[in-house]
Amino acid sequence: MHHSPRHNRWVGIGFATLAVRLLAEPEFKGADPADWKLPSEPFTLREDGGLAAVRENCLLCHSTEYISTQPPLKRTQWEAEVTKMRVKFAAPIPTNAVPGLVDYLVRNYGTTNR
Questions:
Q1: Residues 64, 96: one domain?
Q2: What is the domain extent for residue 92?
């Protein structure tokens, strides 16, 4: 399911509002966010030369599970997906990172068909 940037913005605002309200509760006052424990990620991405770029650019919004469970896509399809993330969803992916991201995704989660 794809959501519009407007929907994503409202979801983000909702989570931020919830966090502020929780921190205002007496049991959370003085809680150090550095002590918060997030759930562990149950899936791992395949180790490969481009994994660092994927961690820096894709995991800002996507879980490892979301990436690793995509159907195998052709290179042109992965290029379109990364472009969509940058253009439609304003993902802060530098232009020079795109080829490395696409290469990693094709090698590890793609199909050899063009």
A1: yes
A2: 39-114
The pair phi, psi for residue 73, each rounded to 5°, is -110, 155
Q: Write the pLDDT tens digit of every residue in 92-111.
A: 999 999 999 999 999 999 98
Name the DSSP class of 35: G
What is the rounded distance in angstroms from the CA atom of residue 112 to the CA atom of residue 75? 8
Nearest Cα neighbor of 48 from 111, 112, 100 is 100
Q: Tens of pLDDT along 56-87?
A: 999 888 888 888 888 999 999 999 999 999 99
Instruction: Extract the tokens encoding 73.
Output: 């896509």
User: 29, 23 in Cβ contact below 8 A?
Assistant: yes
Q: What's the CA gap between 52 and 101, in Å, rounded? A: 9
The Cα 109–Cα 95 span in angstroms is 21
